Amino acid sequence: MDTELTERQHIILRAIIQNYLETGEPVGSRTLSKSTELSLSSATIRNEMADLEDMGYIFQPHTSAGRIPSDKGYRLYVDMLMADKEQELTDLKNVVLEKSDKVDKVLKQAAKVLAANTNYATMVSAPVNHRNTLKFIQLSQVDADQIVAVIVMSGNVIKNKIIEVDEELGNETVLKLNMLLNTTLNGMSIEEINLGLIARLKEQAGIHSRVISDVLDAVAEIIHVEDDMEIYTSGATNIFKYPELSDKQSAQEIISAFEEKQQLAELVTETLSSEENHGIQVYIGDETPVRTMKDCSVVTATYELGEGMRGTIGIIGPKRMDYEHVMKTLKTLQKELDAINYKEPKEQEGE
Amino acid sequence: MDTELTERQHIILRAIIQNYLETGEPVGSRTLSKSTELSLSSATIRNEMADLEDMGYIFQPHTSAGRIPSDKGYRLYVDMLMADKEQELTDLKNVVLEKSDKVDKVLKQAAKVLAANTNYATMVSAPVNHRNTLKFIQLSQVDADQIVAVIVMSGNVIKNKIIEVDEELGNETVLKLNMLLNTTLNGMSIEEINLGLIARLKEQAGIHSRVISDVLDAVAEIIHVEDDMEIYTSGATNIFKYPELSDKQSAQEIISAFEEKQQLAELVTETLSSEENHGIQVYIGDETPVRTMKDCSVVTATYELGEGMRGTIGIIGPKRMDYEHVMKTLKTLQKELDAINYKEPKEQEGE
DNA sequence: TATTAGCACTCCATTCACCCGAGTGCTAAC
DNA sequence: GTTAGCACTCGGGTGAATGGAGTGCTAATA
């Protein structure tokens, strides 16, 4: 890329972008000639800008207006940022992630912190049972026709369901079932617990009662049910701060996406599947996998709660987003979340 | 109120309101003189309108514009609607409330259905443990330093938590604890399970180990923890369909309220506490308990999931909302939700 | 050869005047 | 009590004028 742009052009491009990030207004040659460290006349800068435009890094919204970075321009800028040696991290304001609490509380809080620190819309997806193993399972008779099944997965995610049965199983049977389930399934990953295994279990149970078969089916279902991805969001209304996104049309689309969450889910799976750059990914404009956000930029990161539980944190904002700050902030929060499960099991009271 | 308005004025007021509901434009005398069943000249109607304005039921946004209903006007209109003998209910489109499913799924779906049927923003609050009793409780040792406590409440709400302990309890102890907890707490309401009772339990446990004491405390905590009210929303972006609410300022405020949910929670408690009119309440403009919605109307209803579990469904829209339709729809859904728990435990497969 | 000063040109955004139409209030006639 | 008629008001829309920011190009300069 050194062949593509001269040093000076790099500087000018960066100046254009930085200026545009702040003001949101097309930036003209005069402005640049004053602000840039290299002291050039506006005319010279105009020439360079014409070149940059030819190469597609910037463009004019209309003749006789200043220049605006194109997607390609942003891309170059972001790539340069990423190439920078290890950036130091920013401090997060208001980070009080109560690590002791339930996961969902922490994540909700995380989304809020992120929004407060960046002034963009944010999302945090709950960790998904990736390579997750079963840690404990237990059936209990609640009353004559209800059984509650409780399953603890690695990472202490708890699933449960009430199973309705038409005939009482009796203490003994329940006990036997529990034993069977625990000895067989314990430590297995979800993928390993497939239909074949369940079928074998049924046989092994030695009883051909329909009830037991039903119960086992229910258990299998609980384990596999893709808890439709929980996603926490915050600051969606921040988009109103950016005129280019807050006309009715765009605002409605974006906010809808945040409300329905379906599209955010797609974003999450996309992020989780493709892993690069320390888990930080930047989608500019059309690059984003979610159509409704083609006028936005999306920055995402993957966090790891240990034991294969991975989730996504993300920021959605205008294309003229403060990428540098956002990436730093995201990285910080990522570290913060990653750290949560490194705590020794015993350490609880410590601040 | 008959003393206040003549029959003819009533008719005219209603005509104004209905016309305004549809168009959103101030309605003038000429329009009315053509549309109303009573055939009067525009001049006559103008006189009546002037009177109605003096009494505060309508007003002009500016001289030489048509009239718009005031809050007082809406109020009268709504009161008349409410007074109407039993209104028949509307059919809901897309109602497929999977009754078997978990409560939260049903409620999410309910919010969606409501939004789809009305074109307004909707919210559904999860039932709150009002006069809720404990049905089943069980501790299980997950591994050396973790116990999972599962509690099933009436209405099949399941709570659970992992309790960290510093020493293993041993099977026997756990068994004893379970026995104790179940025999003592079963069937009790949350209010009855207070600190005193827990203290007595601790004694009764006969063991003075700190561990057991800790566990019991944790149990008490789970039971009492006010799951911060779950609220499901849908169709928040519907407000963009109404220009009077979709300027940046208002839109941001309203949508914020829907995102943060704090304010909706206030609305819910308000609704649950004051009960009138078959549980249907209408707040017009300033009447609403939530400040951010002073330019909206809010219609809420209370549903009952049986066994003292009560929640709120609500619709937020512009003041020129189709009150009649909304109230009918709300009533229908309310019935629908109420009916869910009337199902015989055995009936499951039936449509 | 690279830079700069200067100038003509373009185009957007703002302002202002203007007009039109919808609607009113009032008065006088029915 | 109702209606016809008229003068008046006001908001919204249209079009022309204006100014400013910015450009591209050319010619002069280092």
Descriptive labels:
homodimer; 351 residues; alpha+beta; Arc Repressor Mutant, subunit A; Beta-Lactamase; Enolase-like, domain 1; 3 domains; three-stranded antiparallel β-sheet; 11 helices; DNA-binding
Give a description of the structure.
2 copies of one chain form a homodimer. Chain A is α+β, with helices and mostly antiparallel strands and 351 residues long. Chain A has 3 domains: 7-83, Arc Repressor Mutant, subunit A (Orthogonal Bundle), CATH 1.10.10.10; 103-126 and 230-340, GAF domain (Beta-Lactamase), CATH 3.30.450; 134-224, Heat-inducible transcription repressor hrca homolog, domain 3 (Enolase-like, domain 1, 2-Layer Sandwich). Helix content of chain A is 43%, strand content 18%. Chain A has 11 helices and 11 strands. Chain A has helices spanning 7-23, 29-35, 42-55, 71-83, 103-118, 171-185, 195-204, 210-224, 248-260, 262-273, 323-340; strands at 58-59, 68-69, 121-125, 128-129, 134-143, 146-153, 158-164, 231-234, 280-284, 296-304, 309-318. In chain A, strand 6 and strand 7 (158-164) form a beta hairpin. Chain A starts with 6 loop residues before the first helix and ends in an 11-residue tail after the last helix. At the A-B interface, strand 5, strand 6, strand 7 and helix 9 of A face strand 4, strand 5, strand 6 and helix 9 of B. The first copy, chain A, binds a DNA duplex (30 and 30 nucleotides) through helix 3.
